[in-house]
Amino acid sequence: MSKILIIEDEAAIRRVLVKILSEESDTYKVDEAEDGVQGLEKAKNDDYDLILCDIKMPKMDGVEVLEAIKKIKPEIPMVMISGHGDLETAVNTMRLGAFDYISKPPDLNRLLNTVRNALDRKQLVVENKILKKKVSKNYEMIGESEAINHIKDMIEKVATTEARVLITGPNGTGKELVAHQIHEKSERCNASIIEVNCAAIPSELIESELFGHMKGAFTSAVKDRAGKFEAADGGTIFLDEIGDMSLPAQAKVLRALQEGLIQRVGADKDIKVNVRVVAATNKDLKKEIEEGRFREDLYHRLAVILIKVPALNDRRDDIPALIEHFARKIADEHGSARKEFSKAAIKLLQEYDWTGNIRELRNVVERLIILGGNEISENDVKLFASK
Ligand SMILES: Nc1ncnc2c1ncn2[C@@H]1O[C@H](COP(=O)(O)OP(=O)(O)OP(=O)(O)O)[C@@H](O)[C@H]1O
User: Fold this and answer.
1) Separation of 192 CA from ligand 1 center, angstroms?
2) Ligand 1 atom 15, closest CA
3) ipTM surpasses 0.90
4) CA 282 from chain center: how many Å?
5) Residues within 6 Å of ligand 1 by CB
């Protein structure tokens, strides 16, 4: 059920809007307010999924209502209704956070499309919030080695800027962790960080995944859908494995970065987005550029700040602290008693060849906790941690 509030002083227009929306879908529950003051009161006291708001109204005009609602409930999308004289104001309201605007008299198709898009966006924002709550605790960065302290330093310095960041390093070294920390410590932290694994999405789907699509753009596009860039509006998009992105998708990402504009697949209208891009790769992008698989102009746009995360083999000093950290986490997850690692066991693990980096270390610690004795000994490591 989607709850929609219509704030409109002209009774005739209000009636038309209520009628169209109530008849369109059983899942729309439509409420109405006849001026800005009443509308704001309702918005405060009830939970709406969407608000349609006239611009020119006595008592409190639409721009004031928009500003007031954005302060108290920024997640509610607002669609402004503009009359003849205030089209320019309507366009300007989008800078103040309005989702879109429609003109009077309302055109049926445009109205319904806008309402559907706005409700889609609301859904994404809510889903992202839930996801964010679930994951935010998992991003603690352990380690005091020179290499990791340098990375922590870089994160502190760049997080609060708007600079784009490219994170490089082998698999499992913590690139995703770095991206999350940058977001969490930035002013965008109340908005979402949206992750896209560019390697996991088939190249023919990546554009639609990133930029969304319109109904009918391709056979499986049965309805309009927002993409990840729109979902990340106001926040951060994390493009993981960017080195695996297809060249056509790279061209579109470049445009999004240069102009802040995106276009859903099959649409002719641009959408403005305000997104910070953080990207990561385990590939040598310079080599990819030489071999014609990666655009050099995109590289320069992405790599304003470059953070290189070293392999675990290059920061073995951090291994004892990481073992302890994972041992504690794993015991908490399993709800079991903590197990200590003997000094000799830790020393042996410090000498291993960690080709899978921190991810591999975590797996090995988990295996040892499950299979080893009450205190993990050197012998347990020899028995259970060998590859
Ligand atoms: N310094 C660290 N302290 C604690 N945990 C860490 C640290 N670095 C990485 N991890 C953990 O190790 C695992 C792998 O890290 P992450 O997924 O960030 O690596 P990645 O470089 O993005 O890997 P890939 O390239 O394979 O996607 C995660 O569970 C992460 O939380």
Assistant:
1) 20
2) 174
3) yes
4) 21
5) 138, 140-143, 148, 169, 171-177, 240, 282, 325, 358-359, 362
Same fold, 2-131 and 313-384: no
Closest residue CA from atom 24 of ligand 1: 171
**Is 218:258 a contact under the CB 8 Å cutoff?**
no
The Cα 270–Cα 264 span in angstroms is: 8
- Which CATH topology does 139-310 take? Rossmann fold (3.40.50)
**Distance from Cα 188 to the centre of ligand 1, integer Å:** 22
- The residue ranges of every structural domain in the chain are 2-131, 139-310, 313-384
Task: For 309-327, give the DSSP string.
Answer: PPPGGG-GGGHHHHHHHHH
Span from the CA of 1 to the centroid of ligand 1 (angstroms): 39
Cα of 110 from ligand 1 centre, angstroms = 45
Which residue's alpha carbon is at the smallest distance from atom 29 of ligand 1?
Answer: 359
Per CATH, is 2-131 categorized as 3.90.850.10? no
Query: Is domain 313-384 classified as CATH 1.10.8.60?
Result: yes
DSSP states of 115-152 as a string? HHHHHHHHHHHHHHHHHHHHHGGG------SHHHHHHH
pLDDT one digit per residue (tens) for the chain, 387 residues: 899 999 999 999 999 999 999 998 888 999 999 999 999 999 999 999 999 999 999 889 999 999 999 888 888 999 999 987 788 888 888 888 899 999 988 888 999 999 999 998 877 777 776 665 555 556 789 999 999 999 999 999 999 899 999 999 999 999 999 999 999 999 899 899 999 999 888 877 888 999 999 998 888 888 889 999 999 999 999 999 999 998 888 988 898 888 888 999 999 989 999 999 999 999 999 999 999 999 999 999 999 999 999 999 999 999 999 999 999 999 888 877 889 999 999 999 999 999 999 999 999 999 999 999 889 999 999 988 875
